[in-house]
Amino acid sequence: MTLSFDTKRLAAAPDAIAPDGSEVRILCRTRSGSMAQFALPPGAVSKAVAHRTVEEIWYVVSGSGRMWRQLDGREEITELGPGLSISIPVGTRFQFRCDGNEKLVAVGTTMPPWPGEGEAYIVEGKWLATV
């Protein structure tokens, strides 16, 4: 594989809708990882999902809400707000919601890079999904 630089500006409109129902704007990608911005509108609750092969690290840019995570008998709900970083290990069941009056926006890095359709699968969540 030939190495190359990747430069990408955040798109004005979503590039896709994630399996969890959030808006996705795709950012840069390397052989080791990929980056995207995820967003939920005020009052929205994502579908609960888990990933088959990737782990993620999220950084909350704006908005407020909560993230539910469950893995290997451990379960927690984390308050989300600007400046917070969270990890989502492979196989973690997770669901997030926007509880504030502005869109909840996070930037996530996926390792290895997002492989495409079929990576995320729907699981039973903590809240009733609205997206």
Care to describe what's here?
A hairpin with a 5-residue loop joins strand 1 (16-17) and strand 2 (23-29). The protein is mainly beta and 131 residues long. It has a six-stranded antiparallel β-sheet, with no helix packed on it. A three-stranded antiparallel β-sheet has the order 7-6-9, with no helix packed on it. It has no helices and eleven strands. The protein has strands at 16-17, 23-29, 34-40, 49-51, 55-62, 65-71, 74-80, 85-88, 93-98, 104-111, 120-122.
Radius of gyration of CA atoms, rounded to a whole number: 14 Å
- What is the CATH topology classification name? Jelly Rolls
Our measurement of the CA-to-CA distance between the termini, rounded to an integer number of angstroms, reads 38 Å
Number of DSSP helices?
A: 0
SS-derived structural category: mainly beta
The helix-strand sequence is: EEEEEEEEEEE
What is the number of independent domains? 1
State which percent range the strand residues make up.
over 45%
Query: How would you write the strand order of the largest sheet?
Result: 1-2-3-10-5-8
Please outline the major beta sheet. Answer: 6 strands, antiparallel
| CATH level 1 name | Mainly Beta
CATH homologous group name: Jelly Rolls
CATH architecture label name: Sandwich
Shape: globular
Low-confidence stretches: none
- Average pLDDT metric: 96
Helix content: under 10%
Extended strand count: 11
Write a brief structural summary:
The protein is an all-beta fold and 131 residues long. It has no helices and 11 strands.
Write the layout of secondary structure elements.
Elements lengths: L15 E2 L5 E7 L4 E7 L8 E3 L3 E8 L2 E7 L2 E7 L4 E4 L4 E6 L5 E8 L8 E3 L9
